[in-house]
Amino acid sequence: MDHLEFEFEGRGHSPRRGHALVGVVGSGNLEVLLEHAELGGNCSAVVDTSIRGFDSLWERVLADFVDRHRLADVRISVNDGGATPAVVTLRLDQAAAEIREEQS
Amino acid sequence: MHMSTDGRKAAGWDTIHRSYRARMERAGRLASGKVVAADDAVSLLESVLEPGDRLCIEGNNQKHADFLAASLARVSSDRVHGLHIVQSNLALPAHLDVFERGIADRLDFCYSGPQGLRLARLVAEGRVRVGAIHTYLELYSRYFSDLTPRVSFIAADAADAAGNLYTGENTEDTPAIVEATAFKSGILIAQVNRIVDELPRVDVPGDWVSFVVEAPKPYYIEPIFTRDPAAITDVQILMAMMVIRGLYQKYGVTRLNHGIGFDTAAIELILPTYAADLGLQGEICRYMSVNPCPTLIPAIESGFVEGIHCAGSELGMERYVAERSDVFFIGRDGTMRSNRIFCQLAGHYADLFIGSTLQVDLEGNSSTATLNRITGFGGAPNFGSESRGRRHGSKSWLQAGEEANRGRRMPRGRKLVVQIVETFREGLEPTFVERLDAWDLQQSFDLPLPPVMAYGDDITHIVTEEGIANLLLCDDLLEREQAIRGVAGYTPVGLGRDRAVVERLRKKGAVAYPDDLGVDKRLANRDLLAARSIKDLVHWSGGLYRPPARFRNW
Amino acid sequence: MRPVRRSYDEATARGRIDGLLDAGTFREFCGPTARRSSPHLPALGLPVSFDDGVVVGEGRLDGRPVLIGSQEGGFMGGSVGEVHGAKLTGLLERGLDVEPAAVVLLLDSGGVRLQEANAGLIAMGEIQRAVFRVRAAGVPVIAAIGGRNGCYGGMSIVARSCDWIVVSEQGRLSISGPEVIEAVEGIEEFDAQDRALVWRTMGGKHRRLLGEVDALVENSIEAFRMAVIGWLEQPRPLDLAAVEAEHARLEARLRRFAECRDGLDVWRDLGVERPEEIPELDADAFNAVVASMEERDR
After folding, report:
1. What is the pLDDT of residues C97-156, one digit of tens each?
2. How far apart are CA B112 and CA B127, in angstroms?
3. Measured between CA atoms, how close is A53 to chain C, in angstroms?
4. How many Cβ atoms from other residues are within 10 Å of residue B209's Cβ?
5. C50 contacts in A (CB within 8 Å)?
6. What is the pLDDT of residues C38-67, one digit of tens each?
7. Do B424 and A61 touch (CB under 8 A)?
């Protein structure tokens, strides 16, 4: 197991409330939890993954995600069962769409 | 062997035919009419084979002359040795036993699959000299040139006493082998599952066949084209959505070939849902060259796919296919007739091929070669290549040709050759690499060139979960490289992209992401599949599809 | 045939609850943001889940209040660990306080989580005890079985302790799984690769014909919803007479089918006219066969 923590500079869009949970922890799959959190406009991420040694890959994927959705004040939590970046990106995007929906 | 004109005159112009008659005479005592008992199979082979003969053992995706192959492994190597095997598919242990025993020492083949590891060892030990690894069409063509078999073993469903053969749904390669052997004074031995008084239909005329052996057990068939929809992932569905919008809809692809895999199964299963919602029924995917994959059932039943020609059959699909004679090619007896060569030809001249691969390099060359194994090509390169001999126009072919034209005055079309891959394979192995493993394989097995499945200059598009690289719109190798990097995601190749160049390529359409294609990622889930289980496929088929036991969960 | 129905077997634990309950009424207890995950798995180098693979909470079904628990079959085979088990026990015990129209358990589980075997085994006992306490208070407990894991091991005992069971055709119910039986008794006794055999001996249709489940529905969340609604506020008697009657029934059944080697033999013995066709029937056709047999036996 690897336990990774990251901080990202926020991009402006802060969900006012709520959370979104997408995916299931299984082989090659993961769950993503997005929550509103007072982080001074920044975003944070905590990743627990069953595959070791992909720190920089996670950082790139998550940084791109924060950038793509222009997020701020969001805590990203991930439990990972060895998903490929393809699956990670898809789940992150789905979670972002869900938390956006919750705001309306 | 080169013979001088004088030598020719002395030997005569029918040496092969006289040899044929001598062999037939030697073996005649074993036969009652054309029928030889299974117990006499080894003696039969020892009688008709001579050292150094070229021998074809029929082995396809679906059926193998497995009893005759096993019998060959039991012949006396004093009497039979130094054979040159010319065979498309090496799949059974017996196929390699003959090299182990010295019965054969030369090999030309197309595909070795599960025997790849052992074949590599035998090559390293010098027990097998490989002439070449061919594609199917190449090897069959060589049967009619310089690799004509002296003796061929073929497999058929049934024979009658006169030697007429019925090949059932799995005719596959039989016609090619039969034609080359029977008309060049070769000996044709057919292994059949049963000998009957009257055949359902005649697929091979009896007077072309030398001997018939009823095998103790029917030839073994595996359901290798069945993909369980339950295993299709959201990512595969996302890629399938991109294929439909970014390729099938954009070019109006009506005639095509699908490789076998979960990626293409996902495309087939969202035709009746996603593509139908886009109003594409009747506009795309109307004619296919492919085995009768069960995942095609919903697309057929909903009227999308109107015609399919098959290289071979698939276990469990027999009744369904037989009841859909408007769609499939069916004999007067009511069962399907398959034929690999014609299917390969139809696929070669179709508008599009799409299939998966294991590695792609920066030029777009793709390979399924893995180290320590010689697996070969099969027919994928025949399908997955530009058809430069094509002359007839179609919407898709002309539109793709326009994109590729680069201001030349003479218009010409272009076949779409598409590779569909995820950026990472299982175990986080990157699909995109700077250097294919094929180069190492070439070295270790002393091959004349790296075993490339599809050459970069034949490939027109690469689809990943990130997006589509349209290589037709790339002006030079540099742009091509950046377009590939642009869809290579988080692999080292993808991370090495020049963001500015990729953005420019995106503006001109050489790189397209889901948003650019109008693909809504949120729809990318299994609810989009017209069938989510094998049971759903059975329902779609009205109970006509009968899946093998291993695929049932009811 | 476009499948507009929402597949029950395919849905996640949360998806099943969303589809089953009246829209927008679900309120989760100990949700994922509380992060009550397994304390044991990290020590073994295994990933955890924020809800430990089970979703519990309250909501409304056909306008009536219910408590509901839903196992996530995708996380460690729906297995029951310490937290997972405690959440189910707590849900059932809450039933004593609020007396809902039913406690509904959506089961999709291979049984005890091997990595937490002791805690999981204790949890099974606690869950079963809680089921009986709720039932004794007159609140029906309804089990729904579908999904890829079916319902095995300790959870199968829990299921059979409930008032009512509804199962999809894909659902399976048995104590030992196919692989376990094959490993213990040998492949001659049971070939776990023979998928059709597995379903003929453990599948929803077999269990329905044996009378061990009360309804078989097609694989859609809506069908499950309708079945569960039919049993709200409908507890079954739970007294000595009921238990003794059940014991007598089981004893007679054991004698009657002692020589049967396959579900097919049982179905034939039960008087099913064309037993070999049973696996191919859809839910409606199958239920028509069951109804005609019940009519005949009346």
Report:
1. 999 999 999 999 999 999 998 999 999 999 999 999 999 999 999 999 999 999 999 999
2. 16
3. 14
4. 24
5. 21, 31, 33, 77, 79
6. 999 999 999 999 999 999 999 999 999 999
7. no
Of B223, B292, B293, B294, nearest to B535 by C-alpha is: B294
Mean pLDDT of B496-511: 97
C6 contacts on B by Cβ (under 8 Å):
527
**Least CA distance to A62: which residue of chain B?**
B490
**Continuous segment of H or E residues that includes residue B258:** strand B255-258
Taking residues C209-233, what's their average pLDDT?
Answer: 96
Local confidence band at B2 (pLDDT 50, 70, 90 cut-offs): low
Could you say which residues from 25 to 54 on chain A have a Cβ atom under 8 Å away from some Cβ of chain B?
28, 51, 54
Answer yes or no: do B554 and C1 touch at CB < 8 A. no
Of C14, C45, C48, which has the smallest distance from its Cβ to A79's Cβ? C48
The CA–CA distances, whole Å, from A60 to A65, A86, B492, B502, B503 equal 8, 13, 12, 18, 18
| CATH code (residue C49) | 3.90.226.10
Q: Let me know if residue C139 belongs to a domain.
A: yes
| DSSP letter assigned to residue C280 | G
Tokens representing residue C264 in the block? 């097919």
Provide the token pair at B385.
């290549």
What token pair was written down for C231?
A: 């049993």
Looking at the domain assignment, is residue C113 inside a domain?
yes
pLDDT at res. C1: 44
Q: Is B174 helix (H, G, I), strand (E, B) or coil?
A: helix
Q: Does A49 touch chain C (CB under 8 A)?
A: yes
Closest approach of B485 to chain C, Cα-based (Å) = 32
User: How many domains does chain C contain in total?
Assistant: 1
Q: Tell me whether residues A90 and B238 touch, CB distance under 8 A.
A: yes
What is the pLDDT, as a whole number, of residue C298?
A: 79
- For residue A33, list chain C residues with Cβ-Cβ distance below 8 A: 32-33, 50
d(CA A67, CA A43) in angstroms, rounded, equals: 10
Range of the domain at C86: 13-173+213-236
Give the model's pLDDT for residue B468. Answer: 98
Check CB contact of A46 with chain C, cutoff 8 Å: no
Going along chain B from its start, the domains and CATH numbers come out as 12-214 (3.40.1080.10), 229-535 (3.40.1080.10)
- Which chains lie within 8 Å of chain A at 3 or more CB pairs, if any? B, C
CA distance B59 to B66: 8
Q: What's residue C286's pLDDT?
A: 97
Query: Quick one: which of B93, B88, B79, B82 has its CA closest to B52?
Result: B82
The minimum CA-CA distance between C267 and chain B, rounded to whole Å, is 15
pTM: 0.92
Inter-CA distances, C108 with B280, C26, C128, C170, C175, Å: 39, 20, 16, 11, 13
**Domain covering A2-103, topology:** Ribosomal Protein S5; domain 2 (3.30.230)
Residue B549: what pLDDT? 84
Give chain C positions within 8 Å (CB) of A50: 45-47
Q: What is the CA radius of gyration of chain B?
A: 25
Cβ separation A57–B490 shorter than 8 A: yes
Residue B247 carries which DSSP code?
Answer: I
Q: Which residues in chain B touch residue C279, judged by CB atoms under 8 angstroms apart?
A: 552, 554
CB contact under 8 A, A48 and C50: no
Q: How far is B267 from chain C (nearest CA, A)?
A: 16
> What SS3 state is found at C120?
helix
Q: Tell me what ipTM this predicted complex has.
A: 0.93
Nearest-angstrom CA–CA distance, B368 and B360: 9
**Cβ within 8 Å, pair A86-B424:** yes
Is A95 in contact with A31 (CB distance < 8 Å)?
Answer: no
- Select from A60, A82, A86 the Cβ nearest to the Cβ of B465: A86
What is the average per-residue pLDDT within B185-205? 98
Q: Does position B427 have pLDDT exceeding 80, yes or no? A: no
